[in-house]
Amino acid sequence: MAAFKQDLFRNLLLGLRARTTEAACPFDAMSLQERKRAIKCSADVAMAAARRGVAGAAIGGRARWPKAILAAAAASSSSHSPGGTCKVRKSACCKRRVARRRVDAKRTIRGYAAAASCDVARRLVRRRTMALRKVIPGGSAAAMDEAALLRETMDYVVHLRAQVDVLRAVSAAVQRSTFLGYIFVLHFVDPMKD
Amino acid sequence: MDMNESGEKGMEGNASSGAAGIPVEWQTQFSAAAFSCAPPPQQQQQVPMMDSAFASAGLWASTSQAMALSDVGAMSAARGGGGFLAPVPGFLPQGLGHFPVDSGFIERAARASCFGGGGVMGATAGFRATDHQPMNNAFSGSSEALLDHQRKDGNEKGEPELGRNGHDGVLSSEAAGGDCSSKGTSDSKKRRRPNEVMGGDQVQSSNLPANSANESVHSKDKGEESSPATTTGPGKSKGKGAKETSESQKEDYIHVRARRGQATNSHSLAERLRREKISERMKLLQDLVPGCSKVTGKAVMLDEIINYVQSLQRQVEFLSMKLATVNPRLDLNIEGLLSKDLLRFPGVPSSSLGFSPEMMHPQLQLSQPGLIQGGAAGMANPDVFRRIMQAQLSAKDGSQMSHALNGGSFSDVAQMAYPSLGSQDLSIRPSQDGFQM
């Protein structure tokens, strides 16, 4: 897992560097939202790339979600509307997913009396499986059976957790270094001189 | 998570440092060692010794799979036993219930459940005749190449241990599968859990004959078929203690079901195998997702999983927002980050620690804007990464991807992902003093 984190971190640095050098708009003009989106996309691409590099020979040679993430990144960058598509698509998916889950809950409550409990359970399981497919990248694309979907989920959860750890460490380090940099500047630039 | 890292440090101190970054070599080592496992006869005397040896190995709850297997591969080469590879991915210390696990854990647990049934399947003669072939055909495609070799070993080993826990199987079936809360992460418990689930199904079938009978039939089918299907080298020696209970329990299930006149043919067994696989993975996910040890049932568990994944994704968004706030220029102060990074990579010698920050200063000033000075290990990964990317992607995507893959490193992926990149030099070069990352 440490190797994966190393690769993720390295790829994240490379990706951010690439993004800043190739960005159409200069950094200062990028809004906070755009920067956040850039970082998040870079982190996802870095995670997918590191997943293939480190564990490509492991059971994760079968993992689909890295391909899905990279394909989505390629598609979004080729369409190239920097603020728009990713966010819009994601928020629409989120809304649709939330709405569908609420509707499903109501439907199951209404139909509870008529159906047997196991049928209700089966329906719930099926709906939640579909919802899980949408959350996991690449889940809705392929015709995966439940076992494969669960394996993908396990793999994705593990690496997502690592990504969160890396991002947390990076943000803490950057915060600390910025703070130390300020202290450094304040120390050496003595306003009292001259 | 801290304990994980300390465990990883312990293991990394033992393992060869170069092995971590080279999964291809590890893979060949693993397959070679596993193939050497297949022909030798039962190593029943060796297995308890290996288990105890691993018990003394100390904490290593979630070492990365490459780390563990490379370490074991070296040790197996030294011992010449070959079977040593087996218990490594499968063994889990008793008290470490809630550590994050990696893909090795997934593999382990899949093998754990599957291997136990393989012995049972071998035991009953009628099953062996009819079910080996369909299971071979059905599952050899999906499972790895090693599995078939190890399954035969597992079948042969399973027979002598069948008679031992006959009454255990009956008792667990009476237990009505209510023991999910007491589960730990040991293999024996893992294997007992699917058996308890099957026992629970068995009890339920008598109560609700209409639908649950089908379910219990299906679940028992899967319980038996999952074992030969996904059994691998680790399964052979890893679950020696746990294997006995599950095999005898599963054999009892077959007898019980045959007695009750329920179907034991290949279709329902295939169905049961599939269900057993799914339930096994649900158990693993239950370990992964924190706070789900008391949750029973697929629907609630799936809900928890979905919530957890969404919360992790939201955390990523939040952290990226935080990074964007802290860092107005997106360039990420390299020096500070690398010095922080040293905490994550425990194999760094202290001399280079003193060296590198000073070396960074002149190099950062002189280097072109695209260069990052990193460790030697950094170069190994891009090569492997490029090879794997080429193997997997070049066939599918068009000219752009293959063109990108023919270059070096992440820069090509970056060119694919960030198309207007230009000719920036995005490599990580190793520094001369061997700054290990």
Automatic annotation (TrEMBL), chain A:
<dbReference type="InterPro" id="IPR059002">
    <property type="entry name" value="IBH1_N"/>
</dbReference>
<protein>
    <recommendedName>
        <fullName>IBH1-like N-terminal domain-containing protein</fullName>
    </recommendedName>
</protein>
<dbReference type="Pfam" id="PF26576">
    <property type="entry name" value="IBH1_N"/>
</dbReference>
<dbReference type="GO" id="GO:0006355">
    <property type="term" value="P:regulation of DNA-templated transcription"/>
</dbReference>
<keyword id="KW-0804">Transcription</keyword>
<dbReference type="GO" id="GO:0046983">
    <property type="term" value="F:protein dimerization activity"/>
</dbReference>
<dbReference type="InterPro" id="IPR036638">
    <property type="entry name" value="HLH_DNA-bd_sf"/>
</dbReference>
<keyword id="KW-0805">Transcription regulation</keyword>
<dbReference type="InterPro" id="IPR044660">
    <property type="entry name" value="IBH1-like"/>
</dbReference>
<feature type="domain" description="IBH1-like N-terminal">
    <location>
        <begin position="2"/>
        <end position="55"/>
    </location>
</feature>
<comment type="similarity">
    <text>Belongs to the bHLH protein family.</text>
</comment>
TrEMBL record, chain B:
<feature type="compositionally biased region" description="Basic and acidic residues">
    <location>
        <begin position="241"/>
        <end position="253"/>
    </location>
</feature>
<protein>
    <recommendedName>
        <fullName>BHLH domain-containing protein</fullName>
    </recommendedName>
</protein>
<dbReference type="InterPro" id="IPR011598">
    <property type="entry name" value="bHLH_dom"/>
</dbReference>
<keyword id="KW-0805">Transcription regulation</keyword>
<feature type="compositionally biased region" description="Polar residues">
    <location>
        <begin position="202"/>
        <end position="216"/>
    </location>
</feature>
<dbReference type="GO" id="GO:0005634">
    <property type="term" value="C:nucleus"/>
</dbReference>
<dbReference type="GO" id="GO:0046983">
    <property type="term" value="F:protein dimerization activity"/>
</dbReference>
<feature type="domain" description="BHLH">
    <location>
        <begin position="262"/>
        <end position="312"/>
    </location>
</feature>
<feature type="region of interest" description="Disordered">
    <location>
        <begin position="150"/>
        <end position="253"/>
    </location>
</feature>
<dbReference type="InterPro" id="IPR036638">
    <property type="entry name" value="HLH_DNA-bd_sf"/>
</dbReference>
<keyword id="KW-0539">Nucleus</keyword>
<dbReference type="InterPro" id="IPR024097">
    <property type="entry name" value="bHLH_ZIP_TF"/>
</dbReference>
<comment type="similarity">
    <text>Belongs to the bHLH protein family.</text>
</comment>
<dbReference type="GO" id="GO:0003700">
    <property type="term" value="F:DNA-binding transcription factor activity"/>
</dbReference>
<dbReference type="Pfam" id="PF00010">
    <property type="entry name" value="HLH"/>
</dbReference>
<feature type="compositionally biased region" description="Basic and acidic residues">
    <location>
        <begin position="150"/>
        <end position="167"/>
    </location>
</feature>
<keyword id="KW-0804">Transcription</keyword>
